[in-house]
Design goal:
heterodimer, B: MetI-like fold, two-stranded antiparallel sheet
């Protein structure tokens, strides 16, 4: 018998059809999926959807209420809010991709190694994640942001990713702890398959549902955190993001409440959609919920 | 009792390496970041001569090896010296002072309110799993969980304070007014607290609701609950005596750990409502790149969190006798 063929025990595509059908039947999951789709399409088509350039200043037309020319009104500098928030969708997606990509990559790697090998490796890695988990994370992110003289959306996203992977690592570790006791892992090990290969081919594919759910919900978290930093004035003030517009809106709340209302509403709806979608996928894939 | 004591000693001992670990992360952040620490301290604001930089270097021991610097910083921390703020030219501890208690006042009130709202509702939703009530409550909680708290705060300020003029929009008390009766001062303070505490508590309760619900659902699935039911015990006894008790255990731990999340929320809420707490100080200092102050605040919060986790564990060991045996 060719033992290397044990690698064939893997995720098959057909196994995903059932969950997809179940997701399609979940009403809240589909609402989330639909809004997410709209957000993603808006981000891609921003230049064609937005009537004006987001940074164009309409002199003498500052703080206009919503009208036919400016659907969502204009801000303190005379920028068209509709165009601004449409382009802001793109920034939000950039943040999501960078922060979630980084946190998931590091979190999965650390969680898998920690859970699979156990022992002192696990001990050391988990104590390190504890250090970050027990402390108020937004303070640490603000601290790191203050270190850099430059301010940029991508940098904020990188910082968010670098400080929040322990959440992902914890969840992946719990999954891997259970999976490594499975018979097929035992079989692969006794057949002499190397540890790295076992993790990549046998353990992680089975932890994938959990990773997908975590990443989806994490998108909501990343967008919310970046917007928070923008609102606090700790993002790039020249960037075209929802948080920046909220920061402007706060100062003119009395005179022009729409400036703060609209970007906040968009952050809210987007976050909500990703949470709904995440929960929908969780139910469809029957993933355990870890609440930390 | 012997078991409990050794358990607690072990818990306290774990805190020591955790403290040094947190301090190391913060310390390395500053030294691994691009740019010179002196420049970071000066925040790139002022143009100074080489000599001044050299002086600062010697004065703060920045010419010493990293390990020596780390050690000096940590030992100072342990003696209660949180560092020196270059921007405001005073010790960080003095700067933090009363602001710390303002934040504690805000967050603890919010936490108590959130627990009082979320736990009963969470239990109710779990008991009526997949019912109309459960779906409504769960839907609302996800909705509220996704709502940016700072945005909700802004909307409330606009509506309640600016439009209707019912509550003050910012601050923690009316300045420059002498209240005749002591209760008048208290009422005044409560007016200022209502909105920030309300928003923070709402945000926190949505999370705690989800937690209580799923923890209660887990407990209801346990074998001993089925056993209790099949013994013919009244449903009320089964739910409250058997299920709720077990469900509350993980809640205690999570509520303790959750204080970090609460503090993060306080940064935003304090900024919205101009609440004179530590979160607002953090934002102000971050905007001015006052790095020593940020490090001091962070270490103080980290230690507070460690103590909170310890207290949670102690509480836990009293509720759950099994812990001592481990």
């Amino acid at each position: 018998m060719d033992w290397s063929r044990l690698d064939l025990i893997d995720v098959n595509l057909e196994g995903w059809l059932g969950p997809l059908r179940r997701l399609a039947r979940s009403r809240s999951g589909m609402v989330g999926a639909f809004i997410v789709l709209v957000v993603v399409v808006t981000a891609i088509l921003a230049p064609w959807i937005a009537p004006y350039k987001p940074t164009r200043l309409f002199y003498g037309n500052e703080l206009l209420p919503p009208s036919r020319d400016h659907w969502f009104g204009t801000d303190l500098m005379g920028r068209d809010i509709f165009s601004f928030v449409v382009w802001g969708t793109r920034s939000a997606m950039v943040v999501a991709v960078i922060a979630v990509g980084l946190a998931t990559a590091i979190g999965v790697a650390v969680g898998a190694v920690s859970g699979y090998f156990g022992g002192w490796v696990d001990m050391a890695l988990m104590r390190f994640t504890d250090v970050i988990l027990v402390t108020p994370i937004l303070f640490l992110i603000i601290l790191a942001t203050a270190l850099f003289v430059i301010r940029a959306v991508w940098l904020t996203a990188v910082i968010i990713g670098l400080f929040t992977w322990p959440y992902v690592a914890r969840i992946v570790r719990s999954e891997v702890l259970a999976l490594r006791e499975q018979l097929y892992v035992e079989a692969a090990r006794s057949a002499g398959v190397r540890d790295g290969r076992i993790i990549l081919r046998h353990v992680l594919p089975n932890a994938l549902p959990s990773i997908i759910v975590t990443a989806t919900i994490y998108v909501a978290y990343a967008i919310l955190t970046e917007a928070s930093l923008g609102f606090l004035g700790l993002g790039d003030p020249g960037a075209v993001t929802w948080g920046v517009m909220l920061n402007v809106g706060r100062d003119v709340l009395r005179r022009a409440p729409w400036v703060a209302t609209i970007p906040g509403l968009l952050i809210f709806i987007t976050t909500w959609a990703f949470n709904l979608l995440g929960d929908g996928i969780r139910e469809a894939l029957d993933v355990k919920e870890y609440l930390q | 009792m012997e078991g409990l004591r050794s358990y607690l000693i072990r818990r306290v001992l774990i805190m020591v390496p955790m403290f040094f670990g947190i301090a190391l992360v913060v310390f390395l952040l500053m030294h691994l970041a691009p740019g010179d620490p002196v420049q970071i301290m000066l925040g790139g604001r002022v143009q100074v001569t080489e000599e001044v930089i050299r002086n600062i270097r010697t004065r703060y021991g920045l010419d010493q090896p990293l390990l020596v610097q780390y050690w000096r910083w940590v030992t100072n921390l342990l003696q209660g010296d949180l560092g020196f703020s270059y921007v405001s030219n005073q010790p960080v501890a003095a700067l933090i002072g009363a602001r710390f208690w303002k934040t504690v006042q805000l967050t603890l009130t919010a936490q108590v309110l959130a627990v009082a709202m979320a736990v009963p509702l969470g239990v109710m939703a779990a008991l009526r799993y997949r019912s109309w009530t459960d779906n409504l409550l769960s839907g609302l909680s996800l909705f509220g969980y996704s709502m940016p708290s700072f945005w909700l705060g802004l909307m409330l300020v606009w509506l309640i304070a600016l439009k209707l003029g019912l509550l003050p929009s910012s601050g923690a008390r009316t300045v420059g007014v002498a209240f005749a009766a002591p209760w008048a001062a208290l009422v005044d303070q409560l007016k200022y607290m209502l909105m920030p505490v309300g928003v923070l508590a709402f945000n926190q309760s949505t999370f705690l609701f989800r937690l209580t619900r799923s923890s209660m659902l887990d407990a209801l699935k346990q074998d001993y609950v089925r056993t209790a039911r099949s013994k013919g015990l009244a449903e009320r006894v089964v739910v409250y005596r058997h299920a709720l008790r077990t469900a509350l255990l993980p809640l205690v731990t999570t509520i303790g750990l959750n204080l970090g999340y609460l503090l993060s929320g306080a940064v935003l809420i304090e900024t919205v409502f101009a609440w004179p707490g530590i979160g607002r100080l953090t934002v102000a200092m971050a905007l001015q790149r006052d790095y020593p102050t940020l490090m001091g605040i962070y270490m103080l919060l980290a230690v507070s969190m460690l103590v909170a986790t310890l207290l949670t564990d102690v509480l836990y060991s009293f509720i759950d006798p099994r812990v001592k045996l481990k």
